[in-house]
Amino acid sequence: MKKIMLLMVSILFLGCTKEDGQDIEDDDFSAYYGGTPFKGTASGIRLQDDQDNYTWEGTGRVALIESSLDSVSLVFMADFGNEGEINLKMRGKTEGSAFRLETEDPSNFFRVIDGKITGSTENHLQKMFFEGSMEKEQVNMAVEVQFKEAEGAFPKGSRLRLRFNTSRNITDNDNGSGCQMRLVPIWSPNGMTMGMVPDC
To answer: Most exposed: 10, 57, 67, 125, by fewest CB within 10 Å?
Structure first.
């Protein structure tokens, strides 16, 4: 079986508009969700002609890195051992308890608002959809990738259903200490690149 690809989603932030609705008051996204990473399981299912034909089971991690005053990178990491790993990284703006990665194209976005994860993005290689929930001690997210061109273990027209189920126990004065950063090869629509991800 060909190894699963290394994958990163990195959508450039081009604009930000506040949606209708009130965010949770007095919360700070980076402070609330940062610190100790979320750990748990990750699973992947490959579908061709609407039939499951391969599954991956491994460990999943979710972490916030590269925090600044009004932005942060949200990283989802699925490690499938000898079969490879998938890394998804989104850098977006924070406003109160909300995280928004939005572009000039309203169909390309990734958001965490009131604990709900939503998103979609499309390029010439693939189309991706995100949905899930993000709480202080638990993150669950489902991703569906539709491959418009062949990529690694995924033929043209195939789909990947990826699921993260992660949690953490946090304590007072939690600062996420004990995590080291590691440099890993990451696939992007522009080719292979190197990126830093937390290793905890």
So the answer is: 57
Using CA of residue 103, residue 47, residue 2, residue 181, what is the dihedral sign? positive
Task: Give the H or E element holding residue 182.
Answer: strand 180-188
Prediction pTM value: 0.79
Per-residue confidence of the chain (200 residues) as pLDDT tens digits?
445 554 544 443 333 333 443 344 347 999 999 989 999 999 999 999 989 999 999 999 999 988 888 999 898 989 999 888 888 888 899 999 999 998 888 888 999 999 999 999 888 888 999 999 999 999 999 999 999 999 888 999 999 999 999 999 987 555 554 456 666 655 443 444 566 666 66
Is the separation of the CB atoms in 45 and 55 below 8 Å?
Answer: yes
